[in-house]
Amino acid sequence: MTKLLMFCALAAMTFAAAQPLYAADEPCPRLNATLHGTYMVHGVGTIVGGGPIASNGTVTFDGKGNSSNTFTASVNGQIHRGVTISGPYTVNPDCTGTQTLSGSNYDFVVMPDGSTFSWIETDPGTYLYGSAVRFKDE
């Protein structure tokens, strides 16, 4: 009986001293699964040499690192409707992330619950940024 009590006490101390699966300062331990569902997304900015740009549409994340974005864009006053682009994304433990959509690159910061995120395009010659809000959880 004494050995059983000592074993249980040792086991309890081991579990109490064990490190959590993620650090307390890592608000997005679900990584890519943080983003899931369909989001309303918009962005504004400038393409150097091409003029102002504005876009509005949806982006859908599968929670596994794949996304698809369908939108309407105005590029220097020329309207482009029903544009669909897709590509991979990565969410880091600190809620920052990256996305590549048909050759364009983006950095973003997502809320820990995945409800909203803000983004900026990181390609040279483009100044484009925006935000998104989840409206359909899938």
Largest sheet: 8 strands, antiparallel, barrel
- Shape, please? globular
Number of helices: 1
What's the number of structural domains?
Answer: 1
Distance between the termini: 52 Å
Using DSSP, what is the number of strands?
A: 8
Q: Please name the CATH architecture.
A: Beta Barrel
Strand coverage percent = over 45%
Q: Report the helical percentage.
A: 10-25%
User: What would you call the structural class?
Assistant: mainly beta
Order of neighbouring strands in the sheet with most strands: 1-2-3-4-5-6-7-8
What string, H for helix and E for strand, traces the elements in order? HEEEEEEEE
Output mean pLDDT: 87
Uncertain segments are 3-22
* Name of the CATH homologous superfamily: Quinohemoprotein amine dehydrogenase alpha subunit, domain 2
CATH class designation: Mainly Beta
Rg, rounded, reads 21 Å
CATH topology: Lipocalin
Q: Topology of this protein?
A:
Elements: H1 2-17, E1 36-47, E2 51-62, E3 66-75, E4 78-91, E5 96-101, E6 104-110, E7 116-121, E8 126-136
Antiparallel strand pairs: 1-2, 1-8, 2-3, 3-4, 4-5, 5-6, 6-7, 7-8
